[in-house]
## 1
Amino acid sequence: MTVPDLEHALDALTARVSSLREARTAYPSELAPTLDAALAELDTAAELLAEARVELDKSARRQNGRKDGPQRELKLLRQVFRAFPVPVIVLDGGGVVRRINPETSRVLGSPDGYLVGRSFPLLVDVSRRAAFRSHLTSVLQTGQPAAFETRLAHQGRTHTVQLALTRLTMPGEPQQMVAAVALPTDVQLPGPRAERPEQSDGALLMAAARRQDLLARMGALLLDEEALRQPVALSRAARLLAAGWADWVIADMVRDGLPRRQVVVAPKDHPLGGLVRQVEKASPAMSQVVAQVLDRGTGTVHEMVDDETLLGFCADGPLLTVMGAGSLLCVPIGSSDGALTLVREHDRPPFTLADLAVMQEVGLQLGLAVRAQSSFQSRSQAADALSASVAPRRLPDVPGYEASAIYHPGASVGAEFYDVFPVSGGWGFALGGAAGKGEEAASVSAMVRGGLRVLSTWESDPDVVVGKVNEALVKQGTGMFVMAAAGFVKGRTIRLSSAGHHPAALVQPDGSVRFAAGGGVPLGISPVAETSVEELSIGVGETLVLYSEGLISSRNDRGEPYGEERLADVLGRCAGQAPATVVKAVEADRHAFSAGQVWDEIVILALRGV
């Protein structure tokens, strides 16, 4: 066969392959005849290659030692290789791609030369990968060709192909090679001049918009209050990424100097057990890619996974193998506080450098969120401790009285307090709050509460105790003032001292309600306390009720305050009832009045003579 004859035969083969594609598209339900014809064309292609080799041998003999003979032969071989109308891949003995023809690049959707130097088995379906390696070894050892059907996945394209392997010896190569001819059987290929979608301006713009949308959604998710209150930032972020950016999302956080697996989100079609459990149990400390990212403090992307041991091992082998990984991306969380790993399977487009850039930003945001959550929880624990320091866990039993109280926290850390405690010859109680919000106000209230309780063990008059606490508060120079009421209970008599506090309400058995004097100047304003003092006699069935500013100042949807008149009306309807019933009735009425809204802390303390 002459060179012109060979070129003519190649053109004819190209035309017939094109006809097969059209037949496959026109008759999708009749694939068997198309496949048989395709295999016949594959045999024809093999024959053409054999005849081309014979022609090259003849040409070499005709050259009879001329220096330009081998170069002309090599040029002819390259021309045949490039013009071949089906994908041809030349592999070395380890399955690494050494050459590909233009048709291979077109079918797989990869740039020219992109696959050279990469492991071809990674393109093969996981279930057929071992079979491919066995066929490759057999072809190299025996020289006998092999053919089998498998799936190839790359750049988001999946092809079912008839893969034919043939051993060959290439000029200039010290080892034998294998030619792999892949004839697609179930995919409609793009036209020869079709532009790859990722190269179009519109596709690039959409990809950039998706990345910006991801950053915006991630920011909103991580700034949500619940994400700060509860340890949900990692799991929420992982689910968001798994929804559109990866098949597998893994978050590892550094604890006690070692990375520990925190979150694993698997593809939706994976059952909860099995492989998912193996990924969860695998130690990230044994992962090369996690160790590298944590050590360098920067992310890495593997557009094509060529080392399946990067993520470590499980009972079934390398994790990336059993996960069907085709592409991998790993970035640090925060400043190496952890690592975020994303894995895509073979049939999805690979991660790119642009994806790496946006995930670096996601990792930074996630690190800030985790640290903010830790700080928020520490502050919340401190706030809970402060709240515990301004309200007793339980009320003690006061002889001759029943006692009950309600403490309702407000929208933020407040400063109201109440207490019941033993004093010399009787019992004492206190209620009040600093004017302000936050930790500083709560700490001042805790100091006043503690001062009233401690000083009451030495003093017999609550007014003296209140005066000394005022003096101490002024000397502290906090700049805050505190409204407070303190009383000593001795028998049926209660001596009450008020420093700018609301007047206590006394509920009679017949339902009438009268208010004590109240008043005075709040603590912390003047070095000399200006208080209001009075003595009350509490008979059997009478109930003394003290309450906070938060109760009286609660407002409805029209902006009207709850007020003392409404309080008196509710208390009158509770005449003769137990203190627990009284405080609950007041709180229920306030709740209905304010439609459940609570801005300031609400404290209600009731003492009933029995």
Note: The first strand starts at residue 88 and ends at 91.
## 2
Amino acid sequence: MPQKLISLIENVLTTDSSLSFDPQQLSRFMLGTEGLACFENKQRSILAVITLTQSHEIKALLDLANHCATDEELAFSLYPISTGKNWGYGTSQPAGTAKNIILLDLGQLTDIKHFDSELGLVTIEPGVTQQQLSDYLLLNNHNYMVPVTGAGPDCSILANALERGYGITPYTDHFAAVNSIQGYWANGTPYQSAVNELDASDDKLVDKTFKWGLGPYLEGLFTQSNLGIVSQMTIRLAKKKADFTSFFIQMEDDALLEEAVPLIRQVLQDYEGIVGSINLMDQRRLLSMFAKNPNGNDAHQVMENQDVERLAKKLQAPNWTIVGSIYGSVGVVKAVKKEINRIFKQLPCKRIYSNSLIIVVANKVIKYIPSLLINKVPPLSVAVEQLDSFNKGKEIMLGKPNKVALKLAYWRHTETAGFDKNELSPGKDGCGLLWYAPLVTMKAKKMREFVEFVRETCPKYNIEPFITFTNLKHDCVDSTIPIVFDLSNPQAVIDAHNCLKALVTEGLKKGFVPYRLNIDQQQWLLDKDSDFWQTVNKIKASLDPHNILSQGRYNPH
């Protein structure tokens, strides 16, 4: 790295911010769950890492990058990350493989800049994590929920919203809950909405209350793009309700899927705003939460049907499990619970609620059983683990972040048993994980077609077909298929990527289109000559004429 460039960068940084090109420091940011280097046979690299502590430094660095762009010796590009925990989609690695990429670490921008307890509006910087916001709300006794995800407490809230992520709390669509954005386009021009520009008051609060602003809606250009950097975001938080219960509807017969789908749709339509999003998980996916891999964690092979049947019987895991939540007053929750019972009585199924007497009693009894006894009695140990996962799943529905969902990434990790379940970090721990996340029309026939497609395709590549459907609305579901593999096994890495590619390419022919792509897919799947991406590139040329920001991110070249 030229000394002149080092000096130029250091001159625009404040005292607490830093520039590092130490190889050991850089390597930490190149750890991912995707195995991209092995599969692509090309090395991604970064020139340096800049860690910011003040948001105004973003503009100074963008201005510098644009100024240096025409100088061959000094030219560099910036690749911003928040917390860098985008597991399975790239983690903290840059999308491009160009030279002179400087990673811009915004993880230290952790200011909660504004909170309106009356309206439930919070303004946060990129580095604010699920856990930090949770701690803030608890400390100040604010009765609101964190928009949590299964990615874990240490993940950025702002970044998940910009990636158009979702969760299972009442405000399922996280970008839909974003009311306002401030930041900078790649050319260094500051961005704020027209409403904020016109507002001559001291508090400028009205912009934080209205998503769509005035004039063309530009804030969507910051999502899944490489057009600008968001320095702060105001999101609307869901208020905690007086009462809550989660429900688990278990179906023993795989063939009941077609009958269950219209009933789930009915619940979502009839009780919108009361029932949150609903998850539908198959048996193998459920077993990945509670069972040990019967093949051993180092085996690159799927479970045999007899193994699945044996584990399912032992753990009482049904073929399909419907998971949802009810939020409201005591009377509303009681009434909707009664209605859900009525609706699903049409099916041979078992219905369990988190406020059921058996669950309440079980939680009280477990507290008095010595841990030594639990560890010595395998059936008891399994029951306790299932109850713990059940309770942690309930916490997520209540907006309390935890790491229960991260266990999935360790299904084929050779050293799974050695990790503390409270300290899981898939990238740092060397887990192998990719995601296939297509949209599926919520019709029973189409969902069955998807299930058969995944179950037929994944085993061809020795990948376990774990299936989850999440209802984004009554008419559309997203299916998150985790491709879990041994990152230390080169053949497993190749098979995992080939499996993903087969799922995507063949799935498109069936109408299963991903809503989110990893940094490798963004290049080989998207057509730079299509009308859509030609339009994106015209916008890119206007807002980033020197192509200095996030080269290749959601922008095929």
Note: The longest strand covers residues 228-236.
## 3
Amino acid sequence: MTSQVDQSEAVDGSDGDEGRSGPGGGRSGPVVPVAPQHRGAKPIRRLDRVIIRFAGDSGDGMQLTGDRFTSETASFGNDLSTLPNFPAEIRAPAGTLPGVSSFQLHFADHDILTPGDAPNVLVAMNPAALKANLPDLPRGAEIIVNTDEFTKRALAKVGYGADPLGDGSLQGFHLHKVPLTTLTLEALKDSGLARKDAERAKNMFALGLLSWMYHRPTHGTESFLRTKFAKKPQIAEANISAFRAGWNFGETTETFAVSYEVPPAKLPPGRYRNISGNLALSYGLIAASRRSGLPLYLGSYPITPASDILHELSRHKNFGVRTFQAEDEIAGIGAALGAAFGGALGVTTTSGPGVALKSETIGLAVSLELPLLVVDIQRGGPSTGLPTKTEQADLLQAMFGRNGEAPVPIVAPATPAECFDAALEAARIAVTYRTPVFLLSDGYLANGSEPWRIPAVDELPAIEPDFATAPNREDGEFWPYQRDPRTLARPWALPGTPGLEHRIGGIEKQDGTGNISYDPANHDLMVRTRQAKVDGIAVPDTGVDDPDGEARVLVLGWGSTYGPITAAVRRVRADGGRIAQAHLRHLNPFPADLGTVLRSYDKVVVPEMNLGQLALLLRARYLVDAESYNQVRGLPFKAAQLADVLWAAIGALDEEDNR
């Protein structure tokens, strides 16, 4: 039987730059081909995009559910962006608002930049998940709730005086009441599992239902479950049975009258895979190792949200990667710096609290002038702060958080996929200029994911260590601090190389010879030379997006604000506003033309997930009135929110002109 198509128009409600929101998702469209296994009697509505949020207790498997839906969406060919959000506790208090874990996925048939401002669909596994996420839902959104969890005790635990499923408070939404737990237990009654174990598969039932609802492929999830539970085949088959039961429920129940189709996106040619920021960064480090010929050594201590890099790199011993899980942060960076002295690509990974502990050794690396990558996956602070939430408040710590004059280059990726390129760039700078380099990612990039075009090896830049192999003086001596006149880098001499014996340490060195020196003039020279080396690093000019060249307002960002800023810029331009945009990957040194760019606009707006750290640096360096817009909520900006800020900046200039 052929599919029917509902041609009715979705509710008209803008959500950033990425389409129209309404029941099920974005704009309705014409009929599209549907795979035979998805064909049934129910109508199919074509959409251009959808934002789905799975929410439940941290033990309900929402991250796994979202990850599997994301993987199948990537394999289908949609563009996508994700936002995992979970408590810091390993198992947060069940049924409470602080214990809610969620996973938001935005997928579309066109280029998108953010996980979306507001979900079109919420899957709520309990009352806490509903209450925690309901304020984010636009009117007309779909809500799928697990009615089995809406007991008096569960409702009272989160402050519901009456059952919201029956008191009329959800009338503005399309509510689907589904007894997920009961249906899962029924599907698994012959599985041989205990009731408690069978209940755990309810997230797979929900995944199957959503997979039917949005025509996601199923083979990959079934293969994943068989692999994940290879040593427990009974568990694997139970999860697969629950997954299929969810699919069949969607196909047969009258609760869901319509399913939705979001066609694949038209991406540039190439081979793609879904990738998170931490995974992309890990692959970038491995690629840097291969392109430089240096063995990769990671000295690290587990810390959220950086631990995934340690986990991933430990799997790649076949590429010569060595990972050391140290007893603390200081030992981790000490080992990495020792590896760099021995001729390896030394890397240490951490988050803000760990950077504070590593600062003395980073200063030692500045003094030794050895390549070292310090990867900071920023999170909410200060102190322990918000371990699982995002922030970009370590910029000033990376810039200045050491004793003495200890300049360090800083590189910041803008998207999860760009973490790969940023790792290569940080390694290039570290090796070429013989310096530690900060790579500033954050929790939003680390855990978020998007499609990534896998590059060919010959597309990747070569990195030349150029080790010293012979004395560099006419008299046959080797001076460890005799510099390359172009880069000001000192020689990198491997220990044990005949004739290149030399001394290193944290006490100030004499220029050239490297001997200990307390001479005031020499110290002044060495301090200025180390600064000049960083200032002289070659970085690309500022890329400015100003289509007609008539914008008077420039919005400037760095790091993970790229997606929300660009979505906001698209929104403003679509409504007739003129706005220019630039985004910085290199934060130390800044691009050489940045000052000229800033002064060419009447107003510069700098959105940051901190209290204005980049804006402070810009004001100090270029004497421009950079206008900060700041947020430190542990969550990324929303596109609509930033669009309002940009319109306000444009309007303020218009008002000044009319005075």
Note: The longest strand covers residues 49-57.
## 4
Amino acid sequence: MDIEFNKNEDSLKQLVFQLKSKLKKVYLGGGEKRIAKEHEKGKLTARERIDYLIDEGSEFLEVGAFAGEGMYPEVGGCPSGGVVTGIGYIKGRQCVIVANDATVKAGAWFPITAKKNLRAQEISIENKLPIVYLVDSAGVFLPMQNEIFPDKEHFGRMFRNNAVMSSMGIVQIAAIMGSCVAGGAYLPIMSDEALIVEGTGSVFLGGSYLVKSAIGETIDNETLGGATTHCEISGVTDYKCKDDKEALDHIRTIFDKLGENPKAGFSRVEPAAPKLDEQEIYGILPADRAKPYDMMDIIHRLVDNSEFEPYKELYGQSLICGLGRIDGWAVGIVANQRKIVKSKKGEMQMGGVIYSDSADKAARFIMNCNQKKIPLVFLQDVSGFMVGSKAEHGGIIKDGAKMVNAMANSVVPKFTIIVGNSYGAGNYAMCGKAYDPRLIYSWPTAQLAVMSGAAAAKTLLQIQVSALKAKGEEITPEAEQELLERITAKYNEELSPYYAAARLWVDGIIDPLETRKVISMGIEAANHAPIEKPYNVGVIQT
């Protein structure tokens, strides 16, 4: 192996080590003291509940592990958004699981908690997957109620979704394993079946303090809305369980008897590992993001048997399009080529840039995949579309619009992996979060923004210097350099994949070696939802 390969490998492995260290901290939720307090009450933590609930030895694909990362420092933060969500297997059935983390502010709902809960429901709806709610929440985090309560994308949307999901035939099971108050009380009770744990579970519209202040009645929470009350007096809940484990066992029993639903019918054969060593991805991806590399070297280490059928291989070479299989599933891959290529017309094309010919090719390929019912995988390392008079006169906007149209209207499921850069309209054309990928994950090498840090910083510097000059103020070269460094530092922080993951612009950050698992579990989930509408691109730019 050459020196460059070893340097790249060291750099990416260091980023993966940092990722795993950050995840370990996230998995502690509110910290070890808070975990001990839950155990003292005879309760399992959110993550322990999920581990017990899912099939032994099965995979759990976490969604939004870094939600809330670095946010709300004024109130001590909100690790993982105070809720654990993801896709798991119960009695061999794939499902979405949502578990409130009572170690984080007693499971209270922050603005990011609302966004994460709605994302979990979206995954359930899009893929027609059953969903399990493990409820243990003190309700809205009151100091931020104005950011959580009344709007369309706030918490009320969850209960609207409960109703809509029920009408769609999506199975919803809820276990009340701790507090469940106020509007939040509707979530388990609008589910198909609700279980409650004796002694720790309680559900009511208003707790004992509110009841006392509102109507003067003195009553304790257990009598007001505990397991005995709701299983024997009100009939609000369906099953009374003596502890967390019994409740989780009962959910497994329910899943054991679920009927089968129609499938989408995506092609799958016996899975095979790539023939080329996946570990070599670490050394192939340059540590210096400005350096070119051949994206085909990455693709051959992601697809089964390292077999890939390129589409229009010699045309529009700045985008790679083609067919392969990942863990047995047939996929259509659209990936940014990062090496410099030369067109037959003699034009040198920069890596990571989308040109007219490549956008034209990708649009046609995406339409073909929809015609053949093949899920799409986008591998992003994109700087944006080509600019300048030659590109504009050649109709780059028209060809870009055609690609965006073909991709946005896709009826086959789309999956996005951000390998490196994800800038500007390139993020859009390559199926960024705004274009409904079923799952979108990034590698630790990813950067998301409207443009690169260097380009943005220089642009912002020019604007600020011009503003100062307009006021008659001159700026020294030293002051200008200091300003540039300050702007660059702020912008670079916002480019970080952790910044994106904190805000759920991506579903998570993964080790590159987890890419095949994410795509495979994603297509398996999507296979539960038959395609119901015909592919129609409307008026397309020709």
Note: Residues 195 and 239 are 5 Å apart (CA to CA).
